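Input/output pair, single chain:
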Amino acid sequence: MDVVGRLVRDGVAVGTAFIVTADGLAATAAHVIAPHPEAEWTFEPLTMPGVSLPVDTALPSDAAADLALVQLGAAAEWQPMALVSHTSATPGDPVHLRGFAASRDYDSGVGHYVGVTAETGRSWVKVSCRHAQPGMSGAPVLLTGTGGVIGVVSARLNAERWNRDTVLLSCVEDLVALAPERLRLRLTAPVGGFIRGTLRLSWVRGSQTELLLETDDFNISFGRSSASRVYLPDPRDSRFHGQLSLVGTTLVYQHLGSHPAFLAGATRQLRIAKGDSCPVGDKDRISVASGTMLVEFSAPDLYDPNAEPTASEDEDADEGKEEAGDGR
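Output:
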């Protein structure tokens, strides 16, 4: 089940939360919860339409750090996101985020780590990202390729010049301080093998499908150009060009042609104009002038969730003590 989801207040989606423990403890921004603690709250995993889980908001929060914890009420085994100190990153390292967006069901974005800033004695992690949108408050920002969350979206600066596209993140160190008995900070990012998964594209021919491409490379270009990975031979597609790619852990389609394309899924139908991007779900369909392509994929993850994190020197020492104790 998707560990990132919408926080819904009295039936209206207002922010993002993500799972941080296997028993359903989730993190979000305090300003999402604080004004309405008595409201009815639910959590909706981003990629699971129709799934709504009850939320208990009567948990620790820190308004100054803009962080809050909530507990999902439904019993489930979650694969929580790892919390990693921002000191794991160096300026310019790529980051990505994913969360609810007020303009659509959910969205994602990429950017890079800048550093740390401070205001009235409070430190904030600073990243540059053009794609943060209203509704993404509380979303996790990950150090790309590691699976480690280095901060929680708090605010975006939209000044005309200075700091434009800067996103301020609450520090995960402050998040751990809210529940030190349940949360653990990794000083280094988890290291694991990459899972590329499988991407299949097929033409839909009535009730049948005709395999077009099967690959473990999720960067696919479409068009009439011979340089495109998927060549469209029909002249009716002369003004259609597009690109599939992974943005963080989300498969995203960007439309580049002058004629629109159409994307249809289980719960949505979108008209995609030139320059527009949208997330693509498994078994979504992309329609061009000459026909419809079925998109199927599995495990487009950037890291192995079963990989063990790299142990710090302190952790190695603790393990040595435990082994010595077992031997007595």
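Residues 189-195, 300-328 have pLDDT under 50 and may be disordered. The chain has three helices and 26 strands.
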